[in-house]
Amino acid sequence: MTKTSIGPNGMKKMVVNHIEKLFVTSDAATILKEIQVHHPAAAMVAMAAAQQVLECGDMTNFVISFAGELLTQAESLIKMGLHPSDIVKGYEKALKFTLNALDTFNCRTVTDVSDKAQVLPVIQSAICPKLPNYYEFFADVVLDACLRILP
Predict the structure, then answer these.
(1) Closest to 120 in 3D by CA, of 137, 105, 106
(2) How distant is the alpha carbon of residue 144 from its chain centre?
(3) If phi over 0 gives left and psi between -120 and 50 gives alpha, with beta otherwise, what is residue 57?
(4) CA–CA separation, 15 and 29 (whole Å)
(5) How far apart (Å, rounded) are the C-alpha atoms in residues 58 and 77?
(6) Does the predicted model carry a pTM greater than 0.70?
(7) Could you tell me which of 121, 113, 122, 123 has the C-alpha nearest to residue 148?
(8) pLDDT 10s digit of each residue in the chain, 151 long?
(9) Do 124 and 139 contact (CB within 8 A), yes or no?
(10) In this structure, which long-range contacts are made by residues 25-29, counting pairs with CB atoms below 8 Å and at least 24 apart in sequence?
């Protein structure tokens, strides 16, 4: 349901909730909040997306798509004859490998938070996905505000 909402050409969905209120949105968090999920696996994915909103405030569509793809791949492995516990062990092994690999992927390190040259690229990378045309301007504004409140 949310996979076709991704990207600049993502389609909007018309959702009617339990009190007959109509929503037109492409935001996965809004869609999940307004629909009733009955299937246990789908409910787990919805809870993971809700937790993503609480932790980061964004990327719910990615969480849903990624979990859906993991379930699709698990289904094909079950059809090949693998036992579900073996699939879980494989996913846990992949998780450990990924967490170890993430430690090596360091793009920038900020050693002095009062150094504009170190902090500005980090702020720009955080703002750019939401404001692609104005991220340089807003990054400067945010950086100045942050530097002013530093002790």
Answers:
(1) 137
(2) 28
(3) left
(4) 12
(5) 31
(6) no
(7) 113
(8) 666 666 666 777 777 877 788 878 777 777 777 778 888 988 898 889 888 888 887 788 888 889 989 999 999 999 999 999 999 999 999 999 999 999 888 888 888 988 999 999 999 988 887 788 999 999 999 999 999 998 8
(9) yes
(10) 27/60, 28/2, 28/60, 28/61, 28/64, 29/53, 29/60
Tokens 């955080």 belong to which residue? 126
Tokens 């076709």 label which residue? Answer: 4
The residue to which tokens 């990615």 are assigned: 62
Q: Tell me the residue type at 24.
A: V
Structure tokens at 77: 């492995």
